[in-house]
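Q&A log
Question type: sequence-to-structure
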Amino acid sequence: AVKFERLGVFTYSREENTPAYDMPDQVSETTKRNRFEALMADQRRNHNEFNKSFLGKTLKVICEGYDTVSESFYGRSYADAPDIDGKIYFSSHRRIRDGEFVEVKITELLDYDLVGRVSE
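Response status: OK
Response body:
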């Protein structure tokens, strides 16, 4: 089976003036939703396995801000798209400026996100 590191899934929606709009035997909304949920559940498992490969590794991360709820900085690596992919949450003994690159050792997984600390 093919395993994707990152995957976006969308349900089909009919668009006027397209060949598929008038096709017979349109798929029900329930079937679309069930297929979507099954694919996303499978992808969550795959992505968790992918994220496990980062445990103990150090990644170059650009700081994008500070999250007051988790009381940690957050950012992304070269492989993470803004607003689409997960974030990398990290702690540091010093203040990190937005836009600053830091080396972060990954210590935990949090759903689609990674958690670590700045290698000082």
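Response note: Residues 46 and 63 are 26 Å apart (CA to CA).
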